[in-house]
Amino acid sequence: MATQQFKAESKRLLEMMINSIYSQREVFLRELISNASDAIDKIYYKALTDESLTFNQDEYYIKVVPNKEARTLSIVDTGIGMTKEDLETNLGTIAKSGSLQFKTENEAKDGHDIIGQFGVGFYAAFMVADEVTVVSKALGSEEAYMWHSKGVDGYTITPAEKDTVGTEITLKIKENVEDDQYDEFLEEYTLKSIIKKYSDFIRYPIKMDVSGQRPKEDNEEELESYVEEQTVNSMVPIWRKNKAELTDEDYVNFYQEKHYGFDQPLKHIHISVDGTVRYQSILYIPENMPFDYYSKEYEKGLELYSNGVLIMNKCSDLLPDHFSFVKGMVDSEDLSLNISREMLQHDRQLKFIAKNISKKIKNELKSLMKNDREKYETFYKAFGRQLKYGVYSEFGANKEMLQDLIMFYSSKEKKLVSLDEYISRMPEEQKYIYYASGESIERIDKLPQTEVVSEKGYEILYFTEDIDEFAIKMLMSYKEKEFKSVSSGDLGIESEENDENVESEQEENKELFDYMKSILSDKVKDIRLSKRLKTHPVCLSTEGEVTIEMEKILSAMPDNQNVKADKVLEINRNHEVFLSLKHAFETDKEKAALYTNLLYNQALLIEGLPISDPVEFTNNMCKVMV
Ligand code: ADP
Ligand code: MG
């Protein structure tokens, strides 16, 4: 049986094409300019092998001409032009791409700058125009032809007059209707900004006659109007330029031109990869945190270009969350775009690029930490929290990658240190990486629990942000050294003599401790003589996974599950208060109970935990005074 050919319902197809492919009308200009650029490229590629052709850069350009009176917009190019047959096949058949065919035929000659491939972009013109006229003269042809269409009703092709090779496309811009304004597509300013936005890096000049006013030459007091032809696009994208030719200032200018931020970038990274997936990228590490950075409104992402044409403003898949502060762009000729060129077909290439970029950012930050500490600390103050979140989130999937980038304030030099620096200056016998949590550096400095660790000469990391302890719990250890809170039960600090004394004294006073436990009952897990206190009378330590800082954070959360740390009230046996306590227990039980309550509440205060009954607490204080 003979196979029947599908017949496309062209009218319906065109209608769909016009109304549902593109999310934004303004891209019609991007499509027509891309076609014009392809047409010039084709002459360029032909000239590479055809000796009778010379490609003189100056002769090739694209010109955009609005005419308000006639309500038309023309896009003129000096490209390869179209023959009658070309007009018929390429513009008369939806989804027929002469450019794709050209690219396939010329693959050997590296025609990979050609943009067209789907054969639909041209029809985007009908989003803003109700009539389109194409006059074209093909290279090597004597005649010119005119293609004319009012959209779904079809088209006509007739002989026309045109002196030079190339194509002139004229759109009759639609009339305004209530909610739809088309006038803007005749405005110089709007057209310029659309060109800048999507087609800034088209390789050929895109010209426009721009009008303005200037002081008269013979009389500076008076203004005269003038019209001047200007090239609107920048043409050579900075990322395609040789790194050696670019100065820091060029990168800063690009950052500001692109409005990546209002600040000066702290550092730029220029990547050019020519492997299985080719891409170029310029990335920036900003100096300041955007005001909405830690809010839901902040959107991460990089600009994505395909062959110099902007595809996406913020491609979020290119950046992992922990590097969401990075700004910049990626351009690749190897992306498989969907038909509207607004989305990617599949993201294999994108994943590859994202992975690559992530690695580069990490290395760059690492070298910044090593070679320009001051800059790194500026960066870290703005975005360190994000890195720590990165360690914690996704069940620690990125912790290996990030652990060398995080820093904490430390007791030793009173400044930020990396984990590696901490480890490298640890005394040999030190078993753990010690940390203390609290609201601020000043408060941690005064915590009684830090005494014994500090006295040993061990460095303590200060955790002042909510995320710190959670991140470290995810990390568990660094270079085989476990993290240890100074408030935890076993500090791993050997002091056998002292420890034995503490234990025997504890035993001697068993009755006292049992009595105290009965007073505080479920408020504490245990009451003990302390092995860590040197000068302070009391402190709280914890047993188990949940520390006091974590309890505070968890209870501040909206869905708090009332998670509590298992607290141990520790008492300094060398402090006079312990003698008073013992004495009271022997002579006046009521007084002993009063002391127990006071000491417990003091320990809470030191930790920054709320006292459940402040009135009772102050009354108790008064009882002691009178
Ligand atoms: P695509 O660009 O994806 O191929 P289009 O619908 O934009 O699809 O254009 C269809 C075809 O029409 C192009 O492939 C090209 O062969 C031809 N064409 C469009 N515009 C021009 C032009 N300005 N000069 C020469 N050929 C053009
Ligand atoms: Mg096209």
Automatic annotation (TrEMBL):
CDD domains: HATPase_Hsp90-like
Compartments, as annotated in UniProt: Cytoplasm
Gene coding for it: htpG
One GO CC term on file: cytoplasm
The keyword Iron-sulfur is annotated on this UniProt entry: no
Protein's recorded name: Chaperone protein HtpG
Function: Molecular chaperone. Has ATPase activity.
Subunit relationships: Homodimer.
Major location category of this protein: cytoplasm
Sample GO molecular function, one term: ATP binding
Protein family (similarity comment): Belongs to the heat shock protein 90 family.
Keyword ATP-binding: yes
InterPro entries listed in its UniProt record: HATPase_C_sf, Heat_shock_protein_90_CS, HSP90_C, Hsp90_fam, Hsp90_N, Ribosomal_Su5_D2-typ_SF
Binding residue positions for ATP: 31, 35, 77, 82, 90, 96-98, 117-122, 167, 341
Residue span of region A: 1-341
Residue span of region C: 553-626
Keyword list, A-Z: ATP-binding, Chaperone, Cytoplasm, Nucleotide-binding, Stress response
